[in-house]
Amino acid sequence: MAIAQQQKPTDKATSNANDFRAAMSAASARDHDRFEAHLRDDVTFINPMVGTVDKAGFRAFHTALWTGLPDINYKVERTVSEGDTVVGECTVTGTQRGELAGVPATNKSVTVPVAFIVDYENGKAKRWSSYLDTATLLRQIGAMK
């Protein structure tokens, strides 16, 4: 019995890390439905560009982001997972072909490191926090020097 108890947290951590990678794949494909299948209905999304929002706000954020960067790609560099929490380090790339952060299309490429901390409950994301250097993003699209 003790062995099974020791393996259970590792299995959950691995499962959550795999779910995070699958969610990032769906985001790279700009597939709302496939991405949202990884979220609880009561998910909370925290991001420096929009603050704290619910699932509908998360979708609105992605709609705007994916319009601004229609070729966006989330490359998962690594994950660290413990229990119900996954930390994902990603490199986000894309070309600004639409409005982004109030800036009209520039056709400039962006490369931004992003860290995500995702708390899971019953196999789905309950809280999703994004941490990124918005100044780097704004400099790359010419909105800031």
Please describe what this structure looks like.
This protein has 145 residues and is an alpha+beta fold. The chain has a single domain, classed as Roll (Nuclear Transport Factor 2, Chain: A), CATH 3.10.450. The chain has four helices and six strands, in the order ααββαββββα. Strands 2-1-6-5-4-3 form a six-stranded mixed beta sheet. A hairpin with a 3-residue loop joins strand 1 (39-47) and strand 2 (51-53).
Order of helices and strands: HHEEHEEEEH
Count structural domains. Answer: 1
Biggest sheet: strand arrangement = 2-1-6-5-4-3
- Helical proportion, percent range: 25-40%
Number of H/I helices = 4
Structure described in brief:
This protein has 145 residues and is of the alpha+beta class. The protein has helices at residues 2-28, 32-36, 55-68, 134-140, and strands at 39-47, 51-53, 73-82, 85-95, 109-121, 124-132.
Summarize the helices and strands and which ones pair or pack.
Elements: H1 2-28, H2 32-36, E1 39-47, E2 51-53, H3 55-68, E3 73-82, E4 85-95, E5 109-121, E6 124-132, H4 134-140
Parallel strand pairs: 1-6
Antiparallel strand pairs: 1-2, 3-4, 4-5, 5-6
